[in-house]
Amino acid sequence: MRRGALVIAGLLAVAAPAPARADGAAGAPVATAATAAQPAKKDARWAAKQHASKPLRQVDRAKLVGKAPAKLVSFYNQWTHEWLAVDAAARRVPDEVSDRFLRCHFTNEPTEMDGRLLGKVLDAARHFGVDRVHVVSGFRAPKYNLILRKKGREVARDSAHTKGHAVDFWLPGVGVQSLYDWAMKHQMGGVGFYKNSGFVHLDVGKKRTWNGD
Predict the structure, then answer these.
(1) Does residue 48 lie within any of the structural domains?
(2) I want to staple 166 with a disulfide (CB 3.0 to 4.6 A). Which of 30, 160, 171, 209 is the partner?
């Protein structure tokens, strides 16, 4: 009888619920160091490397503060649809850049353009306070010039365009008459006034002027 009582007492002890916590919540098993998740040493080393502080790049702060970006004048070639951004304070465009930008759109052939041309166009852009220039014509290959003449276009047989000595352009927001008047005041060669077409011709030949369509 005594052995049976001891067995029943042991079963009751095993089935008894865990004692309540002081705050009234049901008791819960306490995690031990053996059961808590511990990161592997390899993962711990990787995490330490990711959070390690790196020294900042050494820079001269005076060069980073207080300077506004340079103003630009953007040239747009109406035939090739190319853009050319130039420092508004520049007096001329590098020759190799000018040659490529003003190439003949029909043959895709460049030539040596007179460097004074885009320099004068930049002067006009600065004078009128615009940041965009539309180029109608730069270099015109002799073959293409002949084709235009056969079609009855208003081009000279020995056009300055065929020598890389001329450029036709207009400025957005500036009347062609105002642009022509400015070009005549700063004339360095020929100045053509194409009122209906809406552009001005500049070249580096003899000083002369004419009206075109």
Answers:
(1) no
(2) 160
- Containing 210, the helix (H) or strand (E) segment is strand 208-212
Virtual torsion, Cα 55, 59, 60, 63, nearest 10 deg = -140
Asked if the structure places residue 156 within a domain, the reply is yes
Q: Please tell me the distance from the alpha carbon of residue 139 to that of residue 109, in angstroms, as a whole number.
A: 9
- Does residue 82 lie within any of the structural domains? yes
In a domain, 126, yes or no: yes
- The DSSP bridge partners found for residue 210 are 192
Question: How far is 136 from 77, CA to CA, in rounded Å?
Answer: 7
Between 176-185 and 116-128, two packed helices, what is the crossing angle to 10 degrees? 120
pLDDT in tens, 31-90: 555 455 666 778 777 777 766 666 667 777 777 666 677 899 999 999 999 999 999 999
> In sequence order, what DSSP letters do the residues of 72-105 get, joined into one string?
EEEEEETTT--EEEEETT-SS--HHHHHHHT--T
Query: Which residue range(s) make up the domain with 110?
Result: 72-212
Q: How many domains does the chain have?
A: 1
